[in-house]
Write a structure and sequence with these properties.
Oligomer: single chain
Shape: globular
Largest sheet: none
Number of strands: 0
Order of helices and strands: HHHHHHHHHHHHHHHHHH
Distance between the termini: 25 Å
Structural class: mainly alpha
Strand content: under 5%
C-alpha cells in the first residue's frame, strides 16, 4: 500500500471511531501506518504513530494490541539505537504478555531485550540469552520464536568471529520462517556470513535473491552494501563502483548504523584497490558516527582496520587481516552453500 492509502484508511477509521464513539475502530489503521513507516525507515514518525496509538487506546486497548504496540515501539527504538528506551518498552510488553499467558509475545520480548544487549556490544551476555530463549522456544514448540532466536544467535556468533558456527543456525532460521520478508532478512545475514568465510559465490547468490524478490528498506540497503563488498572481495573494480553508486543513491534514507556499515565497507573496498587515503577518510567518518551513536562493536572493528591501514603504509604489499579475509570452509557451510545454489536455480 502507498502512504496515501494508509492516510485515507486512517481518516476513515478516525471518522468511524468518532461517530460510533469507539476508539478501537482506528487502532488497525494506526498499526498499519506505523508498520509502513518503519519499513520505510521513517522511524521517528513511526514512533509518533505508536505513541498516539498507546495514548488513544490507554486502558481500552485489547491486551494483544497493548503488547504488540509496546514490542513494536521497542523495535523502532532499537533501530534508532536508543537502547534504554527499547529495553524499557520490551520489558513493559513482556510483563503484559506474561500476565495474560501470551508465551509467544513473552519470548519476543526476551529476544528484543537480547538484541538491545547485543547492540550495546555485550556479545557474551546476548549469546547466553539467545541460547536460553531458543531452548524455551523449542520446549514450547513455538516455530516463529525458534526461527527468530536461531537467527539472532547466528548474528552474535558471527559478530564474535565464529561465522562457520553461525551459518547453520541462520539456515535453520530460513527453514523455520514461513513468510517471505523474514526469509529475505535471513538471506541478508547469510550473505554477510558466507562472504566472511570466503564463499563469495554463495554470498552473491543469497544477496541477489533479495534484489530479485524485494524486501524491506533496510534489508535492501544491506543487500546493496554487501554486493558492493562482494565485488571488492573479488577485486572487481567496475562492480564495486556500480554497487557503490546504488548505495550512495539510497544513503539519505539509511539509519545511522547502516550508514556506518556502508562507510566501513566502502573504506575496505578502497583499501583493496590501493586507495589508502580515500579508505582512511571513509573509515574516519564511520568511526565518528559509530562513536556518536554508541555503536561500540563497530568502533572497535573500525579502529582495528585503521591500524591495519597504517601498517600497510609501512609495508605496502600487505593487507589488513579484515581486508584480506581468509577462506574458512566446513562441511556444514558447504551444505548451506549447496542449498542456496539449488534455491537460486529454482527461482
Amino acid at each position: 500500500m502507498t502512504e496515501t492509502s494508509h492516510l485515507v484508511g486512517l481518516v476513515r477509521g478516525t471518522g468511524d471511531a468518532f461517530q460510533q464513539r469507539s476508539p478501537g475502530l482506528v487502532f488497525p489503521a494506526l498499526f498499519a501506518y506505523a508498520h509502513y513507516l518503519e519499513d520505510e525507515m521513517r522511524l521517528e514518525e513511526a514512533l509518533d504513530v505508536l505513541d498516539t496509538l498507546l495514548q488513544v487506546g490507554g486502558a481500552k486497548l485489547p491486551p494483544v494490541d497493548a503488547v504488540g504496540a509496546r514490542l513494536r515501539r521497542a523495535r523502532v527504538y532499537r533501530k534508532l539505537n536508543e537502547f534504554d528506551a527499547a529495553e524499557q518498552s520490551y520489558a513493559e510488553g513482556g510483563a503484559l504478555a506474561a500476565a495474560t499467558g501470551d508465551t509467544h509475545s513473552e519470548l519476543l520480548s526476551r529476544i528484543g531485550r537480547a538484541q538491545a544487549i547485543r547492540g550495546r556490544g555485550n556479545l557474551l551476555h546476548a549469546e547466553a540469552s539467545y541460547r536460553e530463549i531458543l531452548a524455551d522456544a523449542e520446549r514450547l514448540v513455538d516455530r516463529d520464536a525458534q526461527a527468530r532466536a536461531s537467527q539472532e544467535l547466528a548474528v552474535v556468533l558471527s559478530t564474535r568471529g565464529q561465522p562457520a558456527e553461525a551459518i547453520p543456525f541462520e539456515w535453520r532460521a530460513y527453514q523455520l520462517y514461513e513468510d517471505g520478508l523474514s526469509r529475505m532478512r535471513v538471506l541478508s545475514d547469510l550473505g554477510v556470513m558466507l562472504l566472511i568465510v570466503g564463499d563469495v559465490v554463495g554470498a552473491e547468490g543469497a544477496l541477489t535473491e533479495i534484489t530479485r524478490n524485494g524486501a524491506s528498506h533496510d534489508v535492501m540497503d544491506n543487500a546493496f552494501i554487501e554486493l558492493m563488498h562482494c565485488a571488492s572481495f573479488r577485486r572487481d573494480r567496475i562492480g564495486f563502483e556500480r554497487w557503490r553508486e546504488q548505495c550512495d543513491a539510497r544513503r539519505e534514507g539509511m539509519p545511522p548504523n547502516i550508514v556506518v556499515d556502508y562507510l566501513l565497507k566502502g573504506g575496505i573496498g578502497r583499501a583493496r584497490f590501493g586507495q589508502l587515503d580515500r579508505a582512511e577518510r571513509l573509515l574516519a567518518d564511520a568511526l565518528r558516527i559509530s562513536e556518536e551513536i554508541g555503536l561500540h562493536e563497530f568502533a572497535f572493528r573500525i579502529e582495528r582496520i585503521k591500524a591495519g591501514l597504517r601498517d600497510c603504509r609501512r609495508a605496502p604489499d600487505e593487507e589488513p587481516a579484515e581486508v584480506a579475509q581468509p577462506v574458512v570452509q566446513t562441511e556444514a557451510v558447504r551444505e548451506v552453500s549447496t542449498a542456496l545454489a539449488h534455491l537460486a536455480g529454482a527461482t
